[in-house]
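Reading a protein record of the kind used here takes only a little practice. Think of the row as the fold of the chain written in a discrete alphabet. With that in mind, consider the following protein and its fold in token form:
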Amino acid sequence: MRVSSSEADKLQNAPPKTWAAVLYFGPNAGLVRERADKTARAIVPDLSDAFRVADLTADVLKKDAARLSDEAAAISMFGGRRIVRVRDAVDALAQLFEAFIADHKGDALVVVEAGELNKTSALRKVFEGAKSAAAIECYDDRPEDAGRLIKETLAEIGWKVEPDALAYLSEALSLDRRLLRAELEKLTLYLGLGEANATVTRAQAQTLIGDSGSVETDEIADAVAAGDVKLLDQLILKAADAGISWTGVVGATLRLFQRMTSFSESGGGGFSSSPYGQRMAAQLRGWDRQRLIAAMKLLAQAEADTRTTVLPDAPIAQHALFAVAELGRKTSDRRR
């Protein structure tokens, strides 16, 4: 069955016993992982419990298709329902899951994670068409979703947030759930427990998130969107001399492309005639959905890599920025 995003928040915390398997998929890898984790923890609170949790990958199942049914039918040594997690699922596994869902043994819940799957995806069709399975698409968070999560997270440690500060944080932080959670964790660690009526102001938000070099950052993001490789090269040299944060640069550029995509898909969302809408429309000229998605994937990977690898972040970020600018230059060439 197909489950809407509005229903997903409730069902991920209390998956129906009739489900033999659930597929989380979509462009927001962080939200895919978060929902899969919550569903698994609803059944097995300790996901490190090797007796009740089996962790498989697509490659494992391609080599040993029987492993899925074997793990799902296994009985925990100390009792309790089991979880079988399958990561990086692809269409090549569609027939395997179709056979499993049609004739599954045991009461384990199979929690499957996949990337973006279009409507013709064989794997997606299997889960959407089954009565005992569910398919849940995980879209990129909208600014209002990010705002809600920010408010809830800050409230947990006793902080309120001014509307202006909330708008700034919603705009400044990544719309990928995994990276958003990581940024909020750093923010809450810095703030600590709030006293009575403790409120985050916009000035505090700008200081905590780090707004140094914002002019250069915005200029770089705009040059990338315009496909202006020559200007980008000049701005990168300028930014390097200023000691700019390259994680911040790719993050800001990613957020620009996320806003462009959201604006495009909403048809302007009521802002078409505003200065903001006119700027978005100009930046979108020539960018189709396929190129926007490709750009966001490159930037998201670069942002994650600059945070998690021990390699220098400058070459990682700059390579991604030039790669996306080249995509933009191709769109510019097509407009001439």
Notes: The first strand starts at residue 2 and ends at 3. The radius of gyration is 22 Å.
